[in-house]
């Protein structure tokens, strides 16, 4: 597909022209973005990609035009005051800010004064004098509109439209949060409404506070040995990382001779609890072997990993088959 250079240039100019209608702070960014996009498309040679980019630019322009028409229908521009050149006092002065010698030597900053109202506007948005003159007049018209029309000015109308939109979004968000909170409360308070417990027989047998869990259903906790305090020999020593306080717990299980050291926390009570939990886990592994809780968890984790791996392999095979068919 061969696209005429004139068509591309027309699109480029139209999009840049739309950028001039943006706020002053957005114009430079928009211009740089559009230039970057068009430059990146120079190397495109595929007809499909060229057509895609052309259609994309046209769709962007069409959408912005429709949006502008809809916005103009809701905003009243009839009261915007007309700026007369005889009511303006214009001066060209030196600007400030980045730009090097161009700013220091050239007087391309525009200073406008509206004689009837005394409004003063200073504009140095661009390096070009003509652009600054246009921007200064636009800014002066906006200020005049605010001064003369007040609440009926274009800026205030746009502000009210934005506030309405934000309030609508806020009400939608609040309603959604209320619905989510109500749903969570209903699910927590009435487990019988779950699809698993539709049967009246099951709902009469299973208590309301029951919450099914895969890990509880698949792991057997009945064989965990109980820990008797008389079988323990406890010592409080200094840990390897702490030198000032003796907050490390050393536990010795007399019947089996298992030694456990707990120094994960700075708190002595927490370390006592942690040491006992580690000792119970080691006792469980020694007495129950493959039926211990840790071994059961390892088996479940290995099954999960293997199932994920098999799914990944299947997806890879499907992708390869799809590529071959394509």
Q: Could you name the CATH class of the largest domain?
A: Alpha Beta
Domains, number:
3
> Count of helical segments?
10
Main sheet: which strands, in order across?
1-2-3
Alpha-beta content class: mainly alpha
Element order: H for helix, E for strand: HHHEHEEHHHHEEEHH
The best one-word shape is: elongated
Mean pLDDT: 78
CATH architecture of the largest domain: 2-Layer Sandwich
Q: What share of residues is helical? A: 55-70%
Give the number of DSSP strands.
Answer: 6
Relative strand content = 5-15%
Quaternary status: single chain
CATH topology of the largest domain: Double Stranded RNA Binding Domain
Radius of gyration: 37 Å
Low-confidence stretches: 191-208, 212-217
Describe the structure.
- Residues 291-311 are annotated as: Disordered.
- Keywords: Mitochondrion, Transit peptide.
- The model is unreliable at 191-208 and 212-217 (pLDDT under 50).
- 7% of the residues are buried.
- The protein is built from ten helices and six strands, in the order αααβαββααααβββαα.
- The two termini are 23 Å apart.
- Helix 1 (5-19) packs antiparallel against helix 2 (24-40) and helix 1 (5-19) packs parallel to helix 3.
- 57% of the residues lie in helices and 10% in strands.
- The strands form two sheets. It has a three-stranded antiparallel β-sheet, with helices on one face. A three-stranded antiparallel β-sheet has the order 4-5-6.
- It folds into three domains: 5-74, no CATH class; 85-152, Double Stranded RNA Binding Domain; 224-326, Double Stranded RNA Binding Domain, CATH 3.30.160.20.
- With 326 residues, it is mostly helical.
- The protein has helices at 5-19, 24-40, 47-74, 101-105, 129-149, 154-189, 200-205, 214-218, 268-288, 293-325; strands at residues 88-93, 109-114, 120-123, 232-237, 248-253, 259-262.
- Strand 5 (248-253) and strand 6 form a beta hairpin.
């Amino acid at each position: 597909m061969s696209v005429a250079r004139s068509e591309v240039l027309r699109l480029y100019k139209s999009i840049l022209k739309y950028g001039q209608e943006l706020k002053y702070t957005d114009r430079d960014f928009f211009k740089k973005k559009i230039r970057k996009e068009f430059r990146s498309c120079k190397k495109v040679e595929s007809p499909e990609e060229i057509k895609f980019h052309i259609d994309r630019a046209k769709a962007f322009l069409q959408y912005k035009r429709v949006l502008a028409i809809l916005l103009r229908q809701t905003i009243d521009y009839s009261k915007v005051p007309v700026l007369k050149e005889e009511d303006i006092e214009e001066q060209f002065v030196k600007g400030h800010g980045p730009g090097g010698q161009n700013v220091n030597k050239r007087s391309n900053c525009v200073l406008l004064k509206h004689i009837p109202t005394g409004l003063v506007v200073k504009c140095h948005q661009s390096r070009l004098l003509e652009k600054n003159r246009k921007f200064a007049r636009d800014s002066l018209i906006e200020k005049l509109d605010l001064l003369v029309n007040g609440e009926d000015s274009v800026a205030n109308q746009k502000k009210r439209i934005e506030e309405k939109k934000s309030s609508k979004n806020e009400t939608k968000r609040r309603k959604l949060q209320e619905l989510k909170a109500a749903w969570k409360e209903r699910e927590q308070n009435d487990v019988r409404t779950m699809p698993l417990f539709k049967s009246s027989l099951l709902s009469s047998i299973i208590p309301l506070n029951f919450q099914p869990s895969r890990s509880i259903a698949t792991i057997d906790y009945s064989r965990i040995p109980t820990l008797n305090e008389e079988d323990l020999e406890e010592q409080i020593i200094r840990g390897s990382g702490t030198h000032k306080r003796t907050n490390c717990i050393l536990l010795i299980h007399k019947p089996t001779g298992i030694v456990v050291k707990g120094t994960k926390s700075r708190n002595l009570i927490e370390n006592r609890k942690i040491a006992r939990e580690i000792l119970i886990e080691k006792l469980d592994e020694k007495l129950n072997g493959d039926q211990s809780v840790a071994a059961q968890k390892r088996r479940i984790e290995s099954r999960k990993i293997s199932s994920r791996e098999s799914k990944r392999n299947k997806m890879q095979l499907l992708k390869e088959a799809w590529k071959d068919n394509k």
